[in-house]
Write a structure and sequence with these properties.
This protein is an alpha+beta fold and about 270 residues long. The chain has two domains: about 5-155, Sandwich (Jelly Rolls), CATH 2.60.120.280; about 165-265, Orthogonal Bundle (Arc Repressor Mutant, subunit A). Helix content is about 45%, strand content about 20%. It is built from eleven helices and nine strands. It has helices at about 80-85, 90-95, 110-130, 140-155, 165-180, 185-190, 195-210, 210-230, 235-240, 245-260, 260-265; strands at about 5, 10-20, 25, 30-45, 50-55, 55-60, 65-70, 75-80, 105. Strands 2, 4, 5, 6, 7, 8 and 9 form a seven-stranded antiparallel beta sheet that branches. The protein has a two-stranded parallel sheet with strand order 1-3. Helix 3 (about 110-130) packs antiparallel against helix 4 (about 140-155). The protein is globular.
Length: about 270
Amino acid sequence: MQIRYVETADFWIQKKTSREPMHFMHHHNSFELFYIISGEREYFIEDEFFKMKAGDLVIVPANALHRTDGKGALRFLINFSQAYLEKFLTPDMISALPIFKPAVFRTAEEQRDRLHAKFNSLFTEYSSRAETGYIESDPAIAARFLEILLTVLNSEYFYVRELSSDSRTEKIVKYINENYASISNIEEIASHFYISKYHLCRIFSQSLGTGLIAYLNTIKIRSASKMLKETDLSITEIALKCGFNSPSYFCKIFKSEKGVSPKDFRQ
């Protein structure tokens, strides 16, 4: 059960009913907005679980690992890239947007109809122009989308975290994110939580739709990618700092995740 990278357009919107759990965790270079019209849905983003209902809007940062689960929900889904925002907004305006950390915006009752109407207006405009092309540079679509972002920016977040049935999985994920550099095998994680290796892997895959080793390696490779971009450390040094005991194994996993070797990635 691998974690997938999903290619997305610079701007895209969909209206759909999600009835089944997403069977894999994934990430993409775009940001994501997920607005529930009716029903309920659960989101896992990075190392947190969010329970959502009608009127909730979730923000998924670019490159964040995430997956949906739970009951069926009719929803709008929007993907948009940094490059798309840069066509219409200044760097200061982009940095002010609440899109760089996972969050759920729960609309107040008096705001819900207005926000729903904005999504409908955007979707109608997008659908009417989809066949003609030039969606990503269309100012009318951008104006409607930016209205939604500004509504979120200028509003309070009424969402309150609920106790999750996945609290143990959430603790495991947080532990991995905080200690990945020193974790060399699954047994270490299982021992920390006083459970067997088999039980650890089973509850992890059931909750998140991916294997624990795949998740741990993805977290390590993401950290390594950042070091390759931002430091002059050698590949061996980066491998060790990210928790890989063998540079050759690091290179094998890196190429499996990224499609290129660490050396080529750095270049």
